[in-house]
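Two proteins, back to back. First:
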Amino acid sequence: MPVKLDQKDMAILKLLQQNARATVKEISGKVHLSTTPVYERIKRMEETGVIKQYAALVDHTMIKKGLMVICYVSLKQHNKTAGAKFIRAIQEMNEVIECYNISGEFDFMLKVVAENMDTYYDFHVNRLSEIENIGNVQSVFVMGIIKQTHVMV
């Protein structure tokens, strides 16, 4: 259920999305509130789940994960048990950095990072394709990133 946020909340969220390490004091100066109300607003947004977590965004090419692949996956069977098994298996795979349940021809879209084509091939053949109930996998190789952001407000 959506949480009601006012303009000050939205301004705080925008600042935190741009820099999650910003201090309450820095944020309060930019949104023209004292530190106590800013702290309380941030705490409320954390407790209600508006702010899910704080994270460091890593450049995958700098840590030997230079290949990014979008994988579209369809399952053979579409029941609750089969879907849950697939999801559990995907959650254990460090190469998969995002997974979405989608509509259309495929059931899931995965964002996968790998060191190179050889390591992706090994992941695809020996790990992903070995998951029970996999029907079809289509891999699309990312040639360049045009826009990548987590800023929503």
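And the second protein:
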Amino acid sequence: METDSRVAPAGAGAQQTQFGLINLLKAVAAQLIVLHHLAFYGPMADHARPLMPDLFDWLAGDARIAVQIFLVIGGFLAAKSLAPQGLARLGNPLSAMWRRYVKLAPPFIVATLLATLASLIASAWMTHDSISAAPSVSQLAAHVLLLHSVLGYESLSAGAWYVAIDFQLYAGAALLLWLCGRLSGGLARPWLVPVAMTLVVVSSLFYFNRDADWDVWAPYFFGSYGLGMLAWWAGDPARKPRAVVLLFLMMAVPALLALMLDFRSRIAVALSVACVLMLLGRVRVCSTKGWALANWLGKNSYSIFLVHFPVCLIVNAGFTRFVPVDAEWDLIGTVVAWAASLAGGAMYYRWVEHPLGLIGVSGNGLFWIGLSANRRGRPF
């Protein structure tokens, strides 16, 4: 979910606008996910729903499609990080996978512990299905390894499934790039990676994404993620127009055919976001202003995503225990929980996610230096 500006597909102004748009999309998606979980899980929303039934029903249902924005952006940034020119030059997929793990997992683990504590506190104030039972050691271990959904353990926090899927998708992309590199035999073969990615997208859109039994595995989501990767390569202004057209067709045609076969609004949203990101990469712009709020919200989006559930759970429990049951009061409580999630996310980024990220970068370097030394027969 992070934005990295070390490699850009456009000039400075285009880069600023493109990644400003990415942060804006992440900010909007994060807010919709928070509101979706508020409308879906909390007793406050049940009491406030009669005041705005259509809005609450939409938030509890269709707003969850906002996760497609994260999936497409995740693929877009993965292509930027792993293969910015669309060439199979990834030498060590395990290193890339480890870097992704130390980026995602430590803040997630802390947030999972906070969610466990929040459930303990909330259980003293209310009885509700959103409160998790005390976790077992094996359940916590599965969360640490990002295998909770695969192993059939109940998630301890709303949205925990996405973190595991994000890691699976990134790992799958890294392995695909490594395999393409092996197949290319050291030659450039500029179309090998985009064609391989298109085949993966086709398999996801036409088979895996149509079977809900696959929704704990990366292939179910690789259609949206792969569209994001193709959007990065198609949005590179250094490419010749003919190559751009071909890449756009490789992105759009499978998605449109899949929608004709079996319309899924989530895939339509993913294709729309991918097209916007691709087009903005091709457009030269000069404006670099007006992105401050979007950049702030985008920077904090992962922290908001991680910490909003325990925050909302505590606010729901507090209003249930200490405030009379009343639609107007519970509507105010819903707004308070939303605002508290934003504030909590900002604090979590400052005091947890960012410091852990700095430690992870340092530890990641030491880990791989030691591993290389060990392979040469020297001690760690």
